[in-house]
Amino acid sequence: MTQKNSLRKKRLARWPWVLLAIFLIISASAYYFYNKYLANNRWKPLLQRQLIELVLKSTDSLYHIEYSDFDLNITSGNAILLNFKLIPDTNIYNKLVALKKAPDNLFILSVKKLSIKNIGARKAYKEKILDIDNISIEKPSLTIINKRFDFNDTVKIGKPKSPYQLIKKIFKRLYIDSISLRDISLNYINKSNAVTKQTALNHLDINISDIVVDSLSGNDPNRFYYTKGVDVTVHNYHIATPDSLYYADLKKIYFNTAQRKITLDKISFLPRYNHTDFYNKTGEAGDIYSLKFDRIDINDIDLQRFLRDQKLYAGTMDVLNADVQIYSNNSFKGKKSIKVGKDPQQALQKVALDMMLNRLNIKNAAINYSETDATSGATGQIIFKHTNGYILNVTNDEAEKKINPYMKAFINTRFMDAAPLQVNFKFNLNAKDGAFNYSGELGKFDGRVLDKLVKPLALVHVQSADVKKLTFNVNASNYSGKGKLEFYYKNLNIQLLKKVEGKTKLQKQGFVSLLANNLIIDDNNPDKKGVFRPGPINLKREPTVSFFSFLYKGLLDGLKPSVGYNKKTEQKVNTAIKKVSNLVGKFKKFKEDRKNKIEERKKERQVKKDSLN
Fold this sequence. Notes:
Layout: H1 3-36, H2 43-58, E1 63-66, E2 69-73, E3 78-88, H3 90-98, E4 105-117, H4 121-127, E5 129-138, E6 141-146, H5 163-167, E7 173-190, E8 197-213, E9 229-240, E10 246-256, E11 261-271, H6 275-282, E12 284-285, E13 287-299, H7 303-309, E14 311-329, E15 335-336, H8 344-349, E16 354-372, E17 379-395, H9 398-403, E18 406-415, E19 419-428, E20 436-442, E21 445-446, H10 451-458, E22 460-476, E23 480-498, E24 507-508, H11 510-520, E25 535-540, H12 547-562, H13 567-612
Parallel strand pairs: 5-7, 6-7, 12-15, 14-16
Antiparallel strand pairs: 1-3, 2-3, 3-4, 4-5, 4-6, 7-8, 8-9, 9-10, 10-11, 11-13, 13-14, 16-17, 17-18, 18-19, 19-20, 20-22, 21-22, 22-23, 23-24, 23-25
Helix pairs in contact: 1-2, 1-4, 11-13
């Protein structure tokens, strides 16, 4: 972490404790002045003056406070503060800027109502021990204005005061049973760049339990920053991505420090436009994602590492009931986006937050990849239902990658919701070329379900196929895929198709299909003699081909020799088609000549008939 960033974070972290001290001193000072000046009823103006001086002193006159009313009931120990505001003085701020002493962040805070229940004011006055049952803060609104200054790079960073150091002149010990903040609004304004950026977060709730601040509690390993636990809840979070192409929505975000867990409920990541408008907006072809999740749980978070190093280390992440849809249109006439360096494991390395998940569990996901073909204009689909599995070593942390550079995935699913598919991935997180391996086995199914994929994308209609098993093992990267495929089947029969201008549907190639089935395609593998045809895979990856598209194209490359469509049979059928085409051409010419001769004879007879008349 740089000296500059560390300084900013410490300044940012300090202000809530200053504010808390203000609220606590309100109650303690109120009792003190109330007892001292009870007879002449002068305690309220004295308290107000004390508070104003406290805030000015603790913030070097940069901030002052305002509030509409303060009421303290000594008998019940309850206090209410209405319409509290913490306001920066812009004149002081500008002077600090000129003196090169200004902070990088300014805060504007308003609180509709602050309620303090059961203040032990007498004990606070006599023993300097303050006990409070509850502090409730309603509708706090905080605006943070960030403008980074170069002169803060060279400021010496001293050790920031702890909460106990902030209050020890007033109290020996502070105990609060609970603090609740309801419907918080946060507004972050970044003025550090040429264009001002603004981010808002609304409907945030925070509950803090069992707070103890004394000389020992800061070192208590069972406490999280002097508390037994902090619960943070964000309701109905909605944000557009920086490129304005997607909306991200979450019904609820819940964070609990005692359980060291984050829960995200009802998450969606959806495009803002339909497919046509999306491509017109970007001007280039590429994948369009639509993602929905019922819930995501992140468990066993290392809170100290996150706060100390800003690294997300966690035990497991559970992803429940995901609905993933990916669409690609190869017929779009715009620029093709380059996919080199954008495979999933490579995208993970570009995430700004350093992270390490020991295990990511996938539970009951549905995945649909669809692609519109440039030749046929039709859309093919690969569907995976009831997908379950886990991924190990999900990280972009350099230190962790030195220890273990491989991320592994083990997935079980239903291919086309018709056959069991087990597939494994092994990603080399340090490989510059995005090297990975994928292998697996597909079980028994009726091959006609492949029509959803091969009919639009390969112009092939599967009339019959009894698939017994398919296994594969491919070493791949951003540039190629090489491996082997074994395809066991019986009764394979196909119909070749073609796209005809002016026709919406794909047209059958009856004669060519007949040649294909008789001269190329083998009905069975192994054949009747027991000879098995392997499917070698050796495919160059075009730079514009996406990760998911490349996976199935690699398998299609191995399917061709498996069914008998190798270079030898391809040459054989091309020769046959050429000969047949010549015969067909001669036959057509013969028919045309015959037709012309008949027409000429008709004309001659008509001329004779006309001359006799």
